[in-house]
Amino acid sequence: MTSSPSVPPAPPGQIAAQIARVLAVIDVGSTSVRMKIAQVHADGRIDTLETLQQTISIGKDTFTQREISRETIELCVKALRSFALKLREYGLDPARQLRAVATTAVREALNSQAFLDRIFIATGIEVEVLDEAEVARLTYHAAQSLIDQRPNWADSPTLVAEVGGGSTELLVLRGKTIEAARTFRVGSLRMREALETYRAPVGRHRQIMRNQAQRMVNQFRQEADLDGPIRLAVMGGDARFAAAHLHTEWDGRRPVRLDLIPLEALTDEILALSVDELVQKYRLSFPDAETLGPALLTFLELARGVGVDHLHVAVSSMRDGLISELASLTVWTPEFRQQVIRSAIELGRKYHFDEAHGAHVAARSRTLFQALADEHQLPPKFDLLLHVAAILHEVGLYISFKSHHKHSMYLIQNSELFGLGAKDLLLVALVARYHRRAAPKPTHFGYATLDRESRIAVAKLAAILRVADALERSHSQRVRSLEISRKPGKFIITVPDIDDLSIEQMAMRQKADMFEQTYGMRVVLRVGRTTHT
């Protein structure tokens, strides 16, 4: 077990009283289990108090045997028990001040649920398995600190890469705007294990790994249209190892530039050594030694692929994104909302949707969501999920008008939207599905798998979407402002400066029944005579 305090901690009994807000995150990765404890200040500044790491090669089990062995599970239990003791020293409540996540190695293991259950029974720590979209979102949040530290990068694109044990995250950012994002199932440990599994000759290892990295880079270049000038920034422990080795004066607090010529020389030196030799020479753990060469080789191929002669090593990691999310500093911010909405619009364009109609229904949905805040009591996240569902509610028309609400659900659920994990994507798909026809039923596909809280949220959002869609029945975007009022049992919507609402009123009579069942108010649509903002 390694522990790296960045700020000397106070005696255990004094910690809780001295620190206004302390949070912790645990990352169960492919090659190690790590915990970071940080102090979050009111101005958003985050100071690392302590980091702990236990090297455990979960990915070696998953990528070769498809299951996590009993021995590896017990090693994780031992590590997390020690982490739990440290949490108690800091006076942290795991239910409120800790977020524990697992990534590729646990997600792909056939016995992942048994692994999670064993961890919870033994330690009381509930580990959440992240899907690829959630990892991309956290990488995006972590990359924001890099962009903040380099204001002059705001006007030109930056390719951000993190090579993990089981996968590689690639994001193209222009300032805080995402231009492309993709997760590849090409990771440093997965590369190494594939070579051993298929018994590739040792002399060909380097070329095989280079070919895998090149295929990934070429595919991403085509998808992201990377033809112009771009800079490269890399994240992760392997990149920081190279930076510390090539810049012995580097303090690890700010990004550092690495020229490709010395990086290539270091990579060649590392690839020429066996794993045992790397452990001895650089005092690495065995799993870290296994991943180092493939990761550095991938960074080199990325640099060559985008035509740069240097790269920048970031100091942030996915755990920094986790801390920010746990502190609610970066989740669902206006910038992040725009990334998700932009991704939804791009998906809609793929299926030739009525963009003006989707955007208008989304705007009216947001007005209604905000007006009903006291009734629905949903957090801001659901405002965004409703917005995305409203944008995409008619994409199913690409398949057929008949049952297009079901087609919309299918297309959304089987697509990728940046920043939304599998559960959020299912909620969006269901809300879009219920914009017309039958209300949710326990037997409906997808809906039946939700917990009670999520089922209620779907009903609340779908009821709002139906009302917003009725207001845009003409597909002409003529209802541009609303006045909301209430009387006992009535939710009154007044539309100023429109003399005839007969089309919308007819649509409302057809679609507002779910709203009345959910919120206990009948929707009354009226014509107004004055303009209000």
Q: What does the model show?
A:
By secondary structure, this protein is an alpha/beta fold. The protein has a 6-stranded mixed β-sheet with strand order 1-4-3-2-5-6, with helices on both faces. Helix 20 packs across helix 21.
Strand line-up of the largest beta sheet: 1-4-3-2-5-6
Write down how many β-strands occur, each being a DSSP E stretch of 2 or more residues. Answer: 15
Task: Tell me the major beta sheet.
Answer: 6 strands, mixed
- What's the average pLDDT? 89
DSSP helical segment count: 23
State the helicity in percent bands.
40-55%
Report the C-alpha radius of gyration, rounded. Answer: 26 Å
Distance, first to last CA: 60 Å
Which structural category fits the helices and strands?
A: alpha/beta
Shape: elongated
Oligomer kind: single chain
Low-pLDDT segments, ≥5 res: 5-19
Strand content: 15-25%
Task: Characterize this entry briefly.
This protein has 533 residues and is an alpha/beta fold. The protein has helices spanning 12-18, 58-65, 70-89, 94-97, 104-107, 112-123, 132-149, 188-197, 205-224, 237-246, 260-271, 275-282, 286-306, 318-326, 334-350, 355-371, 373-376, 380-392, 404-413, 422-433, 452-471, 502-511, 513-519, and strands at residues 2-4, 22-28, 32-40, 46-55, 98-102, 127-129, 157-163, 168-174, 177-184, 231-235, 256-259, 310-313, 483-487, 490-496, 522-528. The N and C termini lie far apart (60 Å).
